[in-house]
Amino acid sequence: MLPPFAIRRPTRLADAIALINDDCVPYWGGTELLLAMKMGLLRAEALVDLKAIAELEGIRREGDSLVIGAGVSHDEIACNDLVREHANLLAVAEATVGNARVRAQGTIGGNLCFAEPRSDVATALIALDATVRLISAEGARTLSVAEFILGPYWTQRESTELLVDVSIPLPAAVGVYLKFQTVERPTVAVAAVRRGVAGVRIVIGAVSEVPVVLDRDSISEVDAAAVAADIEPIPDLTGSVRYKRHVTEVYIRRAIKGLNGVGNV
To answer: Are 59 and 76 in contact (CB under 8 A)?
Structure first.
């Protein structure tokens, strides 16, 4: 059973920011939040419903960035023409998040703030050098997604801050997103993108406590076996440490093939 709590429904961004704190928790879809509350992992005196705040919606191009409001759902991102044109890797990742209910209800901002270790979204966004913008009564700050996520269910967001949008620099890196899963969440996820003339970035998600980032000057420098041996997998119902290292190596090799355009990925 959910513990008792109040609901606050601000209609302006400034009002929402004035409300949130340790005891008043912001939410949009609530797909992860309500589960945490049912399990007794989180208690809040009030939930601040953000769905009436227009500033948190929409996908737009602003100069050299693609900006996605924190309240945009996974389905909206996966189907959006701007995302498909400018950051298709993210569209591919978003189309595979969770299940149909989660994709329809869950949002990009909520997903990042919850910092579930097996998040498709964070893995793809780190590969694309994405940033998040946080606003509080004291002002605004911008962090890379890689900086924002500190550990499992732990981010840089202060309790009085609200994540308002995500920005992807354009032109976005071209790449592939692959994952292996046997249940609702991935066992291993790999995002690989081209960087510069010959460079490559590979981000390995879902295996360790935070996504693992590998930058190399050339694809030929990527040793899939060595990378898999160096990571620290979390053993769980989806696989042991040894199994996850094996699957990681396989999917890094497939991602490299995808970048090279050789065979099937």
So the answer is: yes
Unique residue bearing structure tokens 């498909």: 84
pLDDT band for position 228 (cuts 50, 70, 90): very high
Helices and strands, counts by H and E, the chain: 11, 14
- Degrees, nearest 5: CA angle 135-140-142: 100
Which single residue is written with the structure tokens 């929402």?
Answer: 16
Alpha helices in 6-130 (DSSP H): 13-19, 33-38, 74-79, 81-86, 88-94, 100-105, 108-114, 120-127
Neighbours of 155 (CB within 10 A): 21
Tokens at 162, concatenated: 């609200």
Tokens 């190399």 belong to which residue?
Answer: 216
Residue 211, CA distances (Å) to 32, 41, 197 in order? 19, 23, 24
Q: How confident is the model over 45-53, as a mean pLDDT? A: 92
Query: Cβ atoms within 10 A of the Cβ of 229, count?
Result: 11
Alpha carbons 155 and 158: distance in angstroms, whole number = 8
Chain centroid offset of residue 143 CA: 14
Sorting pLDDT into bands at 50, 70 and 90, what band is 263?
Answer: very low
State how far the alpha carbon of 128 is from the alpha carbons of 175, 211, 233, in Å. Answer: 9, 13, 23
- On whether the CB atoms of residues 212 and 204 are closer than 8 A, the answer is yes
Q: What are phi and psi of 203, to 5 degrees?
A: -115, 125
| Helix, strand or coil, per DSSP, at residue 249 | helix
Provide the pairing of β-strand 46-49 with 6-8: parallel
Which of 124, 159, 122 has its CA nearest to residue 42?
Answer: 159
Per-residue pLDDT band for 257 (boundaries 50, 70, 90) equals: very high
pTM: 0.92
